[in-house]
Amino acid sequence: MADPHPAYVLLEDDAWFRGTAPLRFEPAYAEVVFTTNLSGYQEVFTDPSYLGQLVVMTAPMIGNYGINPEDIESDRPRVAGVVVRELSAHSSNWRATGSLLDWLAEARVPIVADVDTRQLTRHIRSRGAMRGVVAVGEEPTTEVRAALAGSPSMDGLDLASAATIGAEYTEGPADARHHVVAYDYGMKRNILRLFVRSDCRVTVVPAGTTTARVRDLKPDGLFLSNGPGDPAAVGYAIDTIRELADGRLPIFGICLGHQLLGLALGGQTVKLPYGHRGGNHPVRDLDTGQVLITSQNHGFAVQGDTSGVPGASALEVTHLNLNDGTVEGVRHREYPIFAVQYHPEASPGPHDAQGHFRQFLQALDSQ
Question: Residue 347 — φ and ψ, nearest 5°?
Fold first, then answer.
């Protein structure tokens, strides 16, 4: 690896953190967040839910097992940039087909290494997630500061329209037991893998697909995927989900899909101080008392508590986050409609919550 260039991470509150750039890049402006995953960096970087974000990895060394074409959640890296403490110069894994640095460079994703990511993470935890920039240079310039001040905030930002697909497509055998229509707001590939493995044919549709088109497809059930951005800004999806949530179709939502369902049925969402991102978040199932260790990646949450979701009397809260008490799951009081804030498909992360896919399949069987 050639000698690195001086670089830095600058936050909108003017705090900045020195680092190095293995390769030169143009300044990248986005919301700065952190994730606590110890491994699974390739899945993280290709997760469309990270669109528009600079991701700080809290694990001290990243890149040591390289990259491969199987461990991806979309067709390319979706993050705006990567910040690490130590970038491994060498990868060692029998499945590796290349290095993390080369893979990110090919996708034109900037990476800043040798940053005190512990100090940066503690700053975000105390001050909240905020806009930031990664840039090459000894220190922030007046021009970079001005550009950061003019960059868009995550509040009010519809990124689902950027993360979605351009045209519908189908995965799974034509003679599958169930037909599911899946709204792609930035869907991870492992969700499709799990549905197909469960004998489902999945018709994946763009975020703006109309109610009429979904009805024409005659599905057995409807899936609302994960995705990036502010859920309240995705008004077109909220209106469509409200029309489809009339009890005729079982509905299952994950992450952004959970938030959109809450909004469609009358609830509100709130931006979390620094979000939930990582593979070790404890969630309590209020029905059984069981604690699930879950994979999470979100900066917004449905407002509510054990008494319910204000404004959405049709919904009851089923799961709560044990770290901060935020809503992690809801279900309809009458219809086979439910959603969870965390990622039961994991990838990366624990598989404690994959039973939610079986729950959805049971709802399809009962129709």
Answer: 60, 70
Q: Is 43 one of the catalytic residues?
A: no
Instruction: Answer with the residue of higher pLDDT: 200 or 2.
Output: 200
- Written as six digits, the tokens of 348 are 């990366």
Report the CATH superfamily, name and number, of domain 160-365. Answer: Class I glutamine amidotransferase (GATase) domain (3.40.50.880)
CATH topology for 5-149 is: Glucose Oxidase; domain 1 (3.50.30)
Read off the pLDDT of residues 318-328 as tens digits, 9 standing for 90 and up: 999 999 999 99
* Catalytic entry in 123, 179, 343, 356: 343
Catalytic residue among 178, 255, 258, 319: 255
pLDDT for res 1: 62
Q: pLDDT tier at 150 (50, 70, 90 boundaries)?
A: very high
Question: Which is catalytic among the residues 258, 332, 345, 356?
Answer: 345
Based on the residue annotation, tell me whether 345 is a catalytic residue of this protein.
yes
* 12: annotated active-site residue: no
Q: Tell me the longest C-alpha to C-alpha distance in the chain.
A: 63
DSSP label at 337? E
Q: Which residues neighbour 101 within 8 Å (Cβ) at sequence distance 6 or greater?
A: 1, 22, 23, 63, 87, 111
